[in-house]
Amino acid sequence: MARNRVGVIGFPVEHSLSPVMHNAAFAALCMDDWLYDCMAIPPDILRLGLREPMQHGYIGLNVTVPHKEAIMNFVRADETAKAIGAVNTVDFRTGIGTNTDAAGLLNDLAANGIEIADRRVLVLGAGGAARAAVYGLARAGADVAIVNRTMKRARRLVEQLRYTADIDGAQVMTLDEAATWGMSLIINCTSVGLHPHPTQSPWIFGVPFPAGVTVYDMVYRPANTALMQQCVAHGGRAVGGLGMLARQGAIAFELWTGVEPPIEVMLAALRGALEEKGEG
Ligand code: NAP
Hints:
- There is one protein chain.
- The protein is α/β, with parallel strands linked by helices.
- It is 39% helix and 19% strand.
- It contains ten helices and twelve strands.
- The chain has a six-stranded mixed beta sheet, with helices on both faces.
- The radius of gyration is 19 Å and the shape is globular.
- The two termini are 33 Å apart.
- NADP nicotinamide-adenine-dinucleotide phosphate binds at residues 101, 125-130, 148-150, 153, 189-192, 194, 202, 218-220, 241, 244-245, 248.
- NADP nicotinamide-adenine-dinucleotide phosphate is lined by residues 101, 125-130, 148-150, 153, 189-192, 194, 202, 218-220, 241, 244-245, 248.
């Protein structure tokens, strides 16, 4: 049995691509005594689902839906996790829970040469991924606006970040208002367009699509979403969210192992897994 074990807990979790990505990284670096596995933990036994791996020598865990918020009751959330209101990575050696989504997004924007400081950035969505995005973008100096189907939820997100992270200034607007706001970047943090609904777009057909903007779509199944296609059809540049998935995982990898993550290996493993499912 591998000496150093890590993994992901969620419910359901079988669809998670994290095991493929991390185990490919361990293999590429000949880290034969490391193993990443996948554990389905129902919400009512979350405490047990955390305690058992810890007592059996796991180094840490990733945490996915629906446990990202509830897990905060059982770990010491660091400043980032507290600000975002969710934990996606735990290190059992310190008992600390953090959130790597914001840094994963910012690292992937940087890797793609997408500038955000002093730029207008429109965030579509107001769920957990949007909260991480707005937190990261605002701290990196972007001028952020949020559009969400449920406007009340977007306003709540702004209020929360004002309270948890002292972030002021993110504005909430309608999609019609956003169409003429003059942003250089749109980040899709909704689940619209996700497999198996690849023809749906969060940019409602009928609202004029701004010309020449960059779209970053957190959705990575399919690789080329309807929103990305709209963007390119209007002279813009579109980037899918697989790199964010790899880079938020890479931060956890480095935290647990102390080893520089082989990001290209992780990305290739993700692409391979999606292609195998016919969703690449
Ligand atoms: P969530 O908390 O459930 O939020 C879902 C968001 O999508 C909400 O803003 C919701 O709007 C919106 N939405 C859902 N169905 C809609 C519809 N039919 N029309 C308009 N808006 C709709 O989910 P999440 O955790 O934030 O994740 C959002 C997406 O980001 C998921 O697809 C997830 O896979 C992806 N993600 C990707 C990465 C990555 O590494 N690439 C990381 C994190 C998340 P309402 O508030 O109106 O319901």
